[in-house]
Amino acid sequence: LAEAAGTTIDRVAVQCVHQHNAPFACLNAEQIILEQGDLPHIVELDFFNECLDKARKAVTAAIPKAEPVTHVAHSQGKVDKVASNRRIDRDKNGKIVRMRGSSCKDESLRSMTEGTIDPFLKTIAFYNKDKKLVSCHYYSTHPMSYYGDGRVSSDFTGIARKQRQQEEPGCTHIYFTGCAGNVSAGKYNDGTKPMREILAKRIYDGIITSEKGLKPEPVGQLTWKTHDILPPVRSTFSVEELTKTISNKDNSVVNRNRPSFMLAWLQRVEKKIPITLSSLQMNDIKTLHLPAESFIQYQLRAQSIQPDQFIATAAYGDGGPWYIPVAEEYPAGGYEVSVAFCDPGIDAVMTQGMKSLLDS
Questions:
Q1: Own/partner long-range contacts of 282-285 (Cβ < 8 Å, ≥24 apart)
Q2: 80-103 burial, b if ≥16 CB within 10 A, otherwise e?
Q3: What are the pLDDT digits (tens) for 74-129?
Q4: Which of 292, 309, 320, 339 has its CA 20 to 30 A from that of 180?
């Protein structure tokens, strides 16, 4: 993508929205399972390369059509009854008993408190004089209503974005998922089909509310900052054990394919290939691009680093580490911690990286 845009790799940030009804691409993990000869694909390489080629061509075609940005605006709107924390059901020692997933049919789980979330949908809009060119929307939740049926869908956040796009065909609307590793719609979603449209309407209403507050101002100072981190890999991971698990044909597919992601991550960290955090900064607005399934606390922490500035966080960038809990959540266990590919030391490393980007 950098090549197509005529820029350097550190100037490109790629985030996914994270709908579960979509491929999860790790080329190294795919190579590991291909060597086994009997496992289903993690991602089909022909399809991956086709997608990459389409994106490259789209960037190349877009560059000559670039328009100047003279003004920028920001605002936010509260979203009602969408996001809820997944890690609410705990025993007296604070350990996770059950996770409240994206679609939750258990009424006892749905009746529990909303928990720690960021209730605001944030918008950053770019203008050429009085013409709105791009509107970027940021909100933190797993973006699924029902899923696992084999159909690719942009789900309720996609429906909301498309509706807004149809209303403003001259402005490109883009939706980003924030730090939603421990956030889903579970409290408000029983997984029935009608809920998809209901949740879409709530996100759409949040977009409309947020955009009502947009007040364009001339672009003053403009900066793009990056910070590389090398996270500490999970100390329990070993090449020998993971290879043995992947090769064991008595194991289920998930218990062979998932460790291939772990092995790919371990090998990558051993090669000292970093994760790049980045931030676009204009006037009193700062975006923050974070990796993987970061917990919501990182997003709230980012805002607290610069309480007087407008911080819009997009996570689900580099997917290598899978879940990134905050340090204090590791002892509580639960699903997210069981598939966190880094040790608790990731918290300090990532927080320091965030501070270096936002402190200025």
A1: 282/72, 282/219, 282/220, 282/221, 282/222, 282/223, 283/72, 283/217, 283/219, 283/220, 283/221, 284/308, 284/309, 284/310, 285/72, 285/74, 285/124, 285/309, 285/310, 285/312
A2: eebbbbbbbbeeeeeebebbbbbb
A3: 999 999 999 999 999 999 999 999 999 999 999 999 999 999 999 999 999 999 99
A4: 309
Domain extent at residue 81: 2-59+67-358
Number of domains in the chain: 1
The pLDDT of residue 24 is above 90 = no
Phi, then psi, of 58 in degrees rounded to 5: -65, -40
Sheet-wide strand order for 131-139: 172-177, 131-139, 120-128, 71-78, 217-218
Record the pTM. 0.97
Over residues 201-212, the mean pLDDT reads 99
What's the rounded Cα separation, in Å, for the pair 198 and 118? 20
On whether the CB atoms of residues 118 and 83 are closer than 8 A, the answer is yes
Can you name the residues that pair with 289 across neighbouring β-strands? 278, 314
Contact 291, 319 (CB under 8 A): yes
Tens digit of pLDDT for each residue in 226-239? Answer: 999 999 999 999 99
| Cβ(279)–Cβ(357) below 8 Å | yes
Q: What is the DSSP string of 285-340?
A: EEEEE--TEE-HHHHHHHHHHSTTSEEEEE---S-TTBEE--GGGGGG-SHHHHTB
Strands (DSSP E) along 23-130, which ranges?
A: 71-78, 84-85, 89-90, 96-98, 120-128
The single residue listed with the structure tokens 């609410």 is: 88
- Confidence category of residue 21, pLDDT binned at 50, 70, 90: confident
Mean pLDDT of the chain: 97
What integer pLDDT is reported at residue 149 of this predicted model?
Answer: 86
